[in-house]
Amino acid sequence: MDTTIFLQLIVSGLLIGFVFSLIAVGLTLIWGVMDILNFAHGDFLMLAMFSSFLMFANLGLDPLLSLPMVVALLFMVGLLTFRWVIRPVLGYPGLIALLATFGLSIFIRNLVLFFVGPNYRVINQSILAGKNFSILGLHFSLSQTMSAIGCVLITCAVYLLIARTKFGRSLRATSLDKDTALLMGINTNRVFALTFGLGAACVGFAGGMLSNFYPIFPEVGLNFAIMSFVIVALGGFGNISGAFLAGIFVGLVENVGGFLIGPEFKYTLVFVLYLIVISIRPKGLFGW
Fold first, then answer.
1. Measured between alpha carbons, how far is 150 from 191 in angstroms, rounded to an integer?
2. How does pLDDT run across 100-156, given as a tens digit for each residue?
């Protein structure tokens, strides 16, 4: 294989891998604190992409300009999901919450299908659309590059929020032992609600950036959700650094492997990798 082509595949894999990482960070954050696997995570991504598209189509707002509103909207979706779907089933076996989010996923997807239909949408006149640049013979899409950079920055911000702030300490204490955190005066329900909102906001940012270059349709979140579940398992449930690194790894495997073997096998390669890793390390590459 030509060296330039190989490097181009690496670059493309890294760019999509960073987006995968942020989506997975939102998912693993909720799991790490609440022990809940949010099946509606991919549908949150779809809502973010449609919100960005509708603001562009109806208000003329470029996806970059509407991004703060999309993130705020998804944060509110996360809070409301906790209040109306998750909080009523807290204290019950984990399978109940999983089924509740599965039902929410079906509801959101069919609601969007009912109101907007199954057709694909694209935003092809945004600030970033169609712009490319080259460095050392490698070609970069401006929209994908900006999305990757943005996702890396948000992932770092989430990590610093958890590691360096009072809320982060409350979150870590709640994830380690909810009952002890409650005895120490931490409002665990508030921590849970903000965690769910933060996880949804992460996927809202990723969805808003993806809308610049990725087709928008009601099923768009499905593949991203499946990849996120794989990434979270590979990185170790609840491990933000692990999810970030595993997302990059999955992006590279999908892109390079899909080119070498065939694009129809790119997801197969990721799942084979997942099965191999889980059979050797059941708690993931960075789990403990």
1. 25
2. 999 999 999 999 999 999 999 999 888 988 888 888 888 899 999 999 999 999 999
Choose among 143, 186, 158, 210: nearest CA to 28.
158
SS3 call for 29: helix
pLDDT for residue 1 is more than 70: no
Residue 24 pLDDT more than 90?
yes
**What's the predicted TM-score (pTM) here?**
0.94
Q: What is the pLDDT of residue 287?
A: 66
42 within 8 A of 228, measured Cβ to Cβ: yes
Number of helical H runs and strand E runs in the chain: 12, 2
Beta strands in 194-233 (DSSP E): none
How large is the average pLDDT for residues 1-9?
82
Q: E strands within 25-106?
A: none
Task: Please tell me the distance from the alpha carbon of residue 237 to that of residue 35, in angstroms, as a whole number.
Answer: 9
Burial class for 32, CB neighbours closer than 10 Å (0-12, 13-18, 19+): buried
- Rounded to 5 degrees, φ, ψ at 124 are -110, 10
